[in-house]
Specification:
Strand order of the largest sheet: 2-1-3-4-5
Shape: globular
CATH topology of one domain: Rossmann fold
Oligomer: single chain
Largest sheet: 5 strands, parallel
CATH class of one domain: Alpha Beta
Radius of gyration: 30 Å
CATH architecture of one domain: 3-Layer(aba) Sandwich
Structural class: alpha/beta
CATH superfamily of one domain: Response regulator
Number of strands: 12
Number of helices: 34
Strand content: 5-15%
Length: about 725
């Protein structure tokens, strides 16, 4: 979201060769609340400023006959990382309208016709800002509205049709976008498809009847579509949906609505147990709409079971009037995407479903961004999470405490528990305690082996959401780590009282049994688990944490207990544990012991680490023969890094630094790399219609304007400004 337009606290650059026009433009823009407005006569001057200062809004003519023209600047905008936050508006003559499609292809935000008067300019820019706010400050929607206006004026309806179809991918379920699509369909001779879409939209939301009638009058000769059956188009791109509600009429209403939106497979259940059994067989549905109080397996337990069975990333809409105030922390903690209060109107249901899917795919609201980042971090999709974080940190409306919590969660995901702890503490100072901060601090303190502190964090969080089985299991595991087996078992019994069939509780029992040395008991429990890998991963992380605290021998002992608890029919898991033990021995420079473990690991041909174990065994043998050691980076994890990351070094020796390179050559390579990254990292819709629309109409003037290439050398000053800006936003909330 381009919230900086809302806040007006940005630098605006006005370009025009006429001093009078520059003065008028600058005066009007200041009158709209933008304090930092600067005018220059040429794009060459503008580029010089942008090389050293962060400019957020550039307003300029096209400069059709000059080397420094708008298309060249837009090419820079879409390839230079330092300009990614720039937004560009064009001042255009009537004779230049045919050039605008090529400009929108390259990320143009809006266009405004010349000549103008003060009054016309004020009205034009006020309308621009009102339209921008209505779009939710999304540049893709804003640019799309201006592009649509331009293509219709030029009569390029085939291009408009291609664009409208493409835009639906980035605004799933947007009924207004379907109305936009109907217009070029009608203008290109596809009246039947246009009528079917309009009929489907009318069935979903009758309040759009006026807009539909206007389209029919203007583009379909006033034809009545009330009897049309609708197209059955899948408006949301959803294949599967689950409805859970004991009320037959509610189930029917939701099912009808989803069917009319084109959802392919809809399964409705009146009790949580039946819905859970379905998810066990067909995991990861595209959406779940559920009541909070349902028979057999009530809403809170169904939600946790569904996530256990593979629906961790499925957006959930809670459709209920029975959620109590004390339930809210748990609802948020479970990542419920949206809530809809009963009773509801059909329009409210439609809007809730559309909003939920849109926010799940392209989150813009604070809660949606937080939910998506947590999901992506859990799935180790760090690059995607970082892209959302960049928008999140730059949003001045989000509090500093919330930003510090997200920083803490990223630090934890990357294994930096000290940084996670420190950010978590700052988050509490600025925002007070919350269930997410308490959870984060608890997990970080476990990894830092500060169990008493972790226990207090989890216990306080549990008072806020007492039905959270995951946290109850974590509390039991802490008691087990502290040697209090009795207390651990009491907590596990409490968890089993809530859900006796929970796989997560069984995993916690197995972990507690291993820690307590009861490997026979653990072996029986692990034989019942669907994914004993979770227990092995926990023990691996525990041993790594012990190693980082200088307790490598304790970590190795934990591995060996785990090995004893693994059922005989899972030799693949045994091979992984032998491999992990070898890593622990390498950390303690015991290569002979590491060799013995690796020789055991390669005896299991089905293990996932067979090739890595064979390669590491070869490296260990070489190091033993040469009398050298293998060193492992502090943040190395046996199952997350490749063997190639290990460096063989002579005992007591030091690694050599690479030879210095020519500075100019390095800068050139860095610039080239950044340009590639700018394209690769860009997502459709982040910069107007760039990567959403492509002009296919040949234009000789466009080709002439694109000849040659502008030079643009961003100085370190702008990089420092960006960095300082981000730091300030974390420190002060923007």
């Amino acid at each position: 979201m381009d919230v900086f337009f809302r806040d007006r606290d940005v630098k605006v650059l006005v370009v025009d060769p006429s001093g009078a026009s520059r003065t008028l433009l600058s005066e009007v823009i200041r009158g709209l609340g933008f304090a930092d407005v600067h005018g220059v006569p040429s794009l060459k001057d503008a580029l010089s400023i942008m090389e050293v200062e962060r400019v957020r809004w550039l307003i300029t003519p096209l400069f059709v006959d000059q080397h420094e023209n708008l298309l060249q600047v837009l090419n820079l905008y879409t390839t230079v990382p330092e300009l990614r936050q720039l937004r560009v508006s064009a001042l255009v003559e009537e004779t230049e309208m045919d050039i605008l499609p090529a400009c929108f292809e390259r990320g143009l935000l809006s266009y405004h016709k010349k000549p103008f008067t003060k009054d016309s300019l004020i009205n034009e820019l006020k309308d621009f800002l009102q339209r921008y706010e209505k779009s939710g400050w999304r540049s893709s929607q804003m640019a799309g509205s201006y592009l649509r206006q331009n293509l219709m004026a030029l009569g390029l309806f085939e291009e408009l049709l291609t664009f409208e179809r493409h835009l639906l991918k980035y605004s799933p379920g947007d009924l207004h976008q379907y109305l936009n699509l109907a217009v070029p369909l009608a203008k290109t001779g596809k009246e039947d498809e246009a009528k079917a879409i309009l009929s489907q939209v009318r069935k979903i939301d009758a309040s759009l009847g006026g807009a539909i009638k206007q389209i029919c009058t203007t583009y379909l000769a006033g034809e009545d579509i009330s009897q049309s059956s609708g197209s059955g188009m899948n408006m949301l791109g959803l294949k599967t949906a689950i409805i859970l509600d004991s009320d037959t009429s509610i189930r029917s209403e939701i099912q009808t609505t989803l069917h009319e939106m084109g959802v392919e497979s809809i399964h409705a259940f009146e009790d949580g147990l039946s819905a859970h059994e379905h998810i066990k067989q067909h995991n990861n549905p595209d959406i779940i709409l559920q009541e909070w109080r349902v028979p057999k397996l009530t809403g809170p337990l169904f939600l946790q079971r569904a996530q256990e069975e593979g629906a961790k990333t499925t957006p959930v809409i809670l459709v209920s009037s029975l959620v109590q105030k004390e339930d809210i922390p748990f609802v948020r903690e479970m990542g419920v995407a949206n809530t809809l209060q009963k009773p509801f109107q059909r329009k409210e249901l439609v809007q809730s479903i559309i909003w939920t899917i849109q926010q799940d795919r392209q989150p813009t609201e604070q809660g949606s961004m937080e939910r998506k980042m947590r999901q992506l971090l859990a799935e180790r999709q760090f690059e995607e999470a970082a892209k959302i974080k960049e928008r999140y940190i730059s949003d001045a409306t989000i509090s500093v405490g919330s930003k510090e919590l997200i920083e803490a969660e990223f630090a934890y995901a990357f294994g930096d528990n000290e940084k996670a702890r420190d950010f978590g503490i700052e988050a509490i100072k600025h925002a007070g305690e919350s269930i997410f901060i308490l959870n984060l601090l608890g997990k970080a303190m476990i990894n830092l082996r500060e169990f008493e502190t972790a226990l207090k964090c989890f216990q306080k969080a549990q008072t806020l959401a007492p039905l959270n089985l995951e946290r109850l299991c974590q509390i039991a595991e802490i008691h087990s780590e502290l040697g209090d087996t009795k207390k651990a078992n009491e907590i596990l019994e409490e968890a089993k009282d809530i859900d006796p069939d929970s796989q997560r509780v069984k995993e916690a029992e197995a972990k507690a049994a291993i820690n307590g040395g009861e490997t026979g008991v653990a072996k029986k429990i692990m034989a019942q688990l669907k994914a004993m890998e979770n227990v092995v991963a926990y023990m691996n992380n525990r041993s790594v944490a012990l190693a980082r605290c200088g307790m490598i021998d304790d970590g190795i002992e934990g591995y060996k207990k785990t090995l004893e608890a693994i059922p005989d029919e899972r030799p693949d898991i045994k091979g992984i544990v032998h491999y992990n033990i070898a890593f622990a021995y390498i950390r303690s420079t015991k290569l002979a012991e590491a060799k013995a473990e690796l020789e055991q690991a390669v005896q299991y041909p089905t293990t996932k680490v067979l090739s890595r174990a064979e390669a590491l065994l070869k490296r260990v043998n070489q190091a033993i023969d040469k009398g050298s050691q293998l060193t492992i980076a502090r943040n190395d994890h046996a199952l997350n890094r490749t063997v190639g990351d290990l460096q063989a070094q002579p005992s007591g020796g030091a690694s050599q630094s690479p030879a210095p390179r020519d500075k100019t050559q390095e800068e050139a390579k860095e610039a080239a790399k950044n340009r590639v990254l700018a394209v690769v990292d860009s997502k459709p819709g982040e910069m107007g219609c760039h990567m959403v629309f492509k002009s296919s109409t040949p234009n000789a003037r466009v080709s002439k304007m694109l000849e040659g290439q502008l030079r643009f050398n961003p100085r370190k000053a702008i990089e420092r400004a960006e960095s300082m800006g981000a730091d300030r936003m974390v420190a002060t909330g923007g």
